[in-house]
Amino acid sequence: MTDMKFYQGKLYVAGLSNRSFASTLRVYDFPFNGNPRASTIEMYHPVHNEVETRAPIRAMAVMSVGGEPTLVAAYTCTPLVTIPLKDLKDGAHIVAKTVGELGWGNVPVGLVTFKLGDVDYALVANSSRASIS
User: Fold this and answer.
1) Domains annotated on the chain, with CATH
2) Secondary-structure percent of the chain, ordered helix, strand, coil, rounded to 5
3) Residue 25: which of 89, 102, 100, 108 has the closest Cα?
4) Local confidence pLDDT in tens for the 133 residues of the chain
């Protein structure tokens, strides 16, 4: 487990799986009643110029993007992605949309959202340099 967020009665848990497809996001209903839903996540990593399936989400938050509840996630290997919450279904394989890159040798350490006027923002704290998007 690498991060978790609670949003509207659901607990979102990011981490790795021991399956061949490692990056997994689980959604638990709260109160805990039943099995979680698990989705595998892949994203494009600009630094490696390839689709990644091995790296976990390191920091995440839920915010509105285009009026739709969306998970904004920063990966250990540094891409910043968006995943619409409606896509997180049990057994789903999701291709996240890469929207930024934090840069080689960097590690996301936190992600918070805030509203300024009518605009929602995501602020990513990282270990060594400014983000590139």
Assistant:
1) 3-126 (2.130.10.10)
2) 0, 60, 40
3) 89
4) 889 999 999 999 998 877 666 788 999 999 888 889 999 888 887 777 777 777 888 999 999 998 899 999 998 878 899 999 999 999 999 999 999 888 777 888 889 999 899 888 899 888 876 555 4
